[in-house]
Design goal:
The chain is mainly β. It is built from four helices and 13 strands. Bound molecules: flavin mononucleotide (FMN).
Length: about 200
């Protein structure tokens, strides 16, 4: 294979998407959309998340040290794309219909339509850019919630994964289905949730 050097990019690297849930200072839930998410090891599996700039989600994680990470699927893509479009510092961001519930171990809001949710507690905060407020959070997984029907479905793994329907992002600002179908560009599905919604300042990372 002959290789060529290109400007820094991760555009050929598919990333799993999660929506992070936090409680705002007034006790109401707030959700944002994130893909810079992976795993690390303490004495058990943990999670690492990179958050750019000073977003509502980051403010609340720093304040409460806990949050949920909920797997994005085809079923909730429009809603979660909206969460990645509107700015959590705007008072009306969460003024859309959706179902949430409380975590079973931590005091975090969990997205009901997500088949898998992590309840996360921050173990370490690493600043990667003091000026811009960019941060990496290393987190303990305090609980994993799975959809009961899927868990008990008895489906063979390939079929189960198709049914879960996790969405990935790759190729810049594009969404892809688990089986490779193109699902549109970032901020397009959000228009089904709130027609005319504009990309908030916090979403321009
Ligand atoms: C597909 C997608 C992935 C994103 N991934 C990240 C990410 O990994 N880190 C980040 O800081 N922001 C990411 N964002 C931007 C946030 O979702 C956006 O800033 C959003 O406003 C955050 O919600 P909040 O303002 O309620 O905190 C992403 C946005 C989209 C559409």
């Amino acid at each position: 294979m002959s290789k060529v050097s290109v400007p820094i990019t991760n555009d050929w690297c598919p990333q799993t998407l999660f929506t992070y849930g936090t409680f705002k200072a007034d006790g109401q839930p707030n959700f944002g959309l994130f893909c810079w998410f992976s795993y690390c090891w303490f004495d058990e599996m943990g999670v690492m998340c990179a958050i750019g700039g000073r977003k509502q989600t980051q403010d609340r994680i720093l304040a409460t040290q806990v949050f949920s990470a909920n797997l994005v699927t085809e079923e909730n893509l429009a809603l979660t794309d909206y969460f990645g479009t509107a700015d959590g510092h705007d008072a009306d961001k969460m003024d859309v219909p959706f179902a949430w519930e409380r975590g079973q171990v931590l005091d975090v809001p969990v997205l009901s339509s997500s088949p898998l949710s992590f309840e996360l507690e921050v173990e370490k905060v690493i600043s990667t850019n003091d000026e811009e407020g960019d941060t990496v959070f290393l987190c303990r997984i305090r609980n994993v919630l799975k959809d009961k029907a899927l868990l008990e479905s008895g489906l063979p793994l390939p079929e189960l994964m198709r049914k879960i329907g996790a969405v990935r992002t790759a190729g810049g600002v594009e969404y892809w289905a688990w089986d490779g179908r193109h699902l549109g560009s970032w901020h397009e599905p959000a228009q089904q949730v709130k027609p005319g919604v504009e990309v908030g300042k916090a979403a321009q990372m």
